Amino acid sequence: MALRGHVLRYGDHIDTDVIIPARYLNTTDPAELAKHCMEDAEDDFIGRVRPGDFIVAGENFGCGSSREHAPIAIKACGVSAVVAKSFARIFFRNAINVGLPILESPEAAEAAANGDELEIDLTTGVIRNLTRGASYQAQAFPGFLRDIIDAGGLVPYVQRQLAAR
Amino acid sequence: MRLTITEKILAAHAGTAAVQPGEFVRCALDFVLGNDITAPLAINEFVKMGAAAVFDRERIGLIPDHSTPNKDIKAAQLVKQMREFARAHGITNYFEVGRMGVEHALLPEQGLVVPGDCIIGADSHTCTYGALGAFSTGVGSTDLAAAMALGETWFRVPESMLFHFFGPLRPWVSGKDLILYTIGKIGVDGARYRAMEFRGEAITALGMADRMAICNMAIEAGGKNGIIAPDAVTRAYVDGRAARPYTFYASDADARYAATFEWDCRAIEPQVSFPFLPSNTKSISEAAALDVAIHQSIVGSCTNGRIEDLRVTAAILTGRTVHPDVRMIIIPATQEVWKAAVREGLMEIFVDAGAAVSTPTCGPCLGGHMGILAEGERAVATTNRNFVGRMGHPKSEVYLASPAIAAASAILGRLGSPDEVGVTPEEFTGFCARLA
Fold first, then answer.
1. Binning pLDDT at 50, 70 and 90, where does residue B436 land?
2. Alpha-carbon torsion angle B87, B92, B98, B99, nearest 10
3. Which of helix, strand or coil describes residue B368?
4. How far is CA B86 from CA B34, B50, B64, B79, B91, in A?
5. Closest CA to B233 of B212, B210, B204
6. What share of chain B is helix, strand, coil (3-state, %, to 5)?
7. Among B141, B303, B375, B391, the residue to mutate for chain A (most A Cβ within 10 A)
8. Which residues in chain B are closer than 8 Å to A64, comparing Cβ atoms?
9. Is A90 in Cβ contact with B37 (below 8 Å)?
10. Lower CB density within 10 Å: C or N end of chain A?
11. Which residues, other chains included, contact B385 with Cβ-Cβ below 8 Å and sequence gap of 6+?
């Protein structure tokens, strides 16, 4: 499946408090959370993001709190994938579990600038920067995680496990 | 076998003799937990998974501590959802307001998490229980949902990093200072995906509250878990509390580490993490020289809300008053801590000094309630994060420090040390002796 959209570029250590501030964690409603996504970055993310866009960031994206509201809010904004140099481990698990595509590629992240157009093939992990005419290969997921991703997230994966018991 | 304590605990829970870093394992879980922010999402996912029952109604902790006592209607709805789920599934460890505490102070205190355990919690500071010699790590809500249904989860076995602290501690240096120092040295992703193992004579000399403060903040270096091999101090803490049999594990002498750090505590001063990352540390003498005025001082949280933290705070506040420009808020982490503070006369010292004392809650640490900062305000806090907007307005600032520094700064109205308010370490020792 190929995704196409524009880059919203962020730096290193984007923490989950910035992605979705705790003052909005009194709800679990994705649409409600989406309204406040990246609010404390104060760069008008909500005004700029278009359905299909990509967040592209530096090291350690999603560090801090374990709140799953963070990948939920990003997904509910219409962001189709997050590309980063690296991900914090709880965010990494959460994104896979809720079905937000994430790609680890230091090279693609380093080269991308705000507004660049990307095309991403989630099956192959190939990231094409159409603006710059460059192509990158994201790190492959280990087989075990591939099973969860292919099942469509952890909920359907566990459904299957429970049914098999 | 050349295994670390982390590898041994994971192997034991995967039902295998040994595991290797990088390997994916399925582990049985001894305890799982969630709070009023993460559990409601987990409950929704649990229902979607089609699970009929929880794996073990005595091994799930549901702790409404973040927005409680309920701060608004939406928060009240989430807590209600959690309470009703706990009742419907007969979950024994649901803690109502009035019997509740900040989860990572409460569970060890109640003996619900014990040495040798494998634990996940839908809260990033679940790594605290590594101080007991358990493998314990934070996850998100869907992982908690799966764990509540299955009683197991998957892990990638982490590489371990060894942090060796030798030499005696300088005056006023606590576990909090050692972990802030560590994060300052290796950065907020310096231990990403890795186990952080702490040892050395300085660690051995610390009590459980300090050890918990250290493991609590492993996540702030990106660590998967923090861990300290259990010893006589651990045993003294656990005996009389442990609700289950426990196992002491230790790393083999020839265990393999991805990195080893040796730090001389004689060179480590009390630390302050400046905005907006926990790794942005300065020594207290550097911080004091910058004359950073503060408007709020918070002592509490899963990092530093234990009775030992309140004692050092009280020793410094005794006979002194909070600066006129400062609001000081002290939050005992559990009802037991509250009661001990009353019994030991600490509450009177706090009130006489002009500090407010709150019922247990995570409240201000995450900018939830009970001490939110306005634009341009600065807080010194014994909490664990100082990200943008963490305690309120995106243009407010949080400075992370130990209870001793938070108390001294509250008196000074700026970042500073107990030495500057004229308290000697001997006075603190004498204060504790009088309590005993």
1. confident
2. 180
3. coil
4. 11, 17, 11, 10, 5
5. B204
6. 40, 20, 45
7. B141
8. 124, 219, 385, 387
9. no
10. C
11. A15, A17, A64, A65, B220, B278, B365, B366, B398, B400
Regions of chain A short of the pLDDT cut 50: none
Strand partners, A4: A119
Hunting for tokens 């004579």 — which residue is that? B201
E strand intervals along B123-220:
135-138, 152-156, 160-166, 195-199
Per-residue pLDDT reduced to its tens digit, B190-244: 999 999 999 999 999 999 999 999 999 999 999 999 999 999 999 999 999 998 9
Query: Residue B379 forms beta bridges with which residues?
Result: B296, B398
When scoring B25, B189, B196, B386 by the number of chain A Cβ atoms within 10 A, the one with the most, hence best to mutate, is B189
Return d(Cα B182, Cα B177) in angstroms, integer: 8
Structure token digits, residue B261? 């750090």
The tally of CA atoms less than 13 A away on the side-chain side of residue B406 is 36
Which uninterrupted H or E stretch holds A69? helix A69-76
- Three-state SS at A120: strand
Q: Mark which residues 144-163 of A lie under 8 Å from B by CB.
A: 144, 153-155, 157-159, 161-163
Which residues neighbour B251 within 8 Å (Cβ) at sequence distance 6 or greater?
Answer: B3, B4, B5, B8, B160, B197, B229
CB A61 within 8 A of CB A91: yes
pLDDT in tens, B325-356: 999 999 999 999 999 999 999 999 999 999 99
Question: How many whole angstroms separate alpha carbon B398 and alpha carbon B364?
Answer: 11
The pair of structure tokens assigned to B414 is 């700026």
d(CA B106, CA B15): 29
Q: Please give the ipTM for the structure prediction.
A: 0.96
Residue with tokens 């409603």: A29
**Residue B94, helix vs strand vs coil:** strand
Among the listed residues B246, B12, B16, the one whose alpha carbon sits nearest the alpha carbon of residue B108: B246
Q: What is the mean pLDDT of residues B375-396?
A: 97
Q: For chain A, positions 35-64, list CB contacts with chain B under 8 A.
A: 39-42, 59-60, 63-64
Which residues make beta-bridge pairs with A135? A128
pLDDT value of residue A1:
66
pLDDT tens for each residue of B254-274: 999 999 999 999 999 999 999
Q: What percent of chain B has pLDDT over 90?
A: 99
To the question of pTM greater than 0.90 for the whole model, the response is: yes
Q: Are B210 and B303 in contact (CB under 8 A)?
A: no
User: How far, CA to CA in Å, does B293 sit from each of B171, B226, B323, B409?
Assistant: 24, 33, 11, 9
- Asked if B149's CB is within 8 angstroms of A63's CB, the reply is no
Q: What is the spatial distance between Cα A93 and Cα A154, in angstroms, rounded to a whole number?
A: 10
Residue with tokens 């304590």: B5
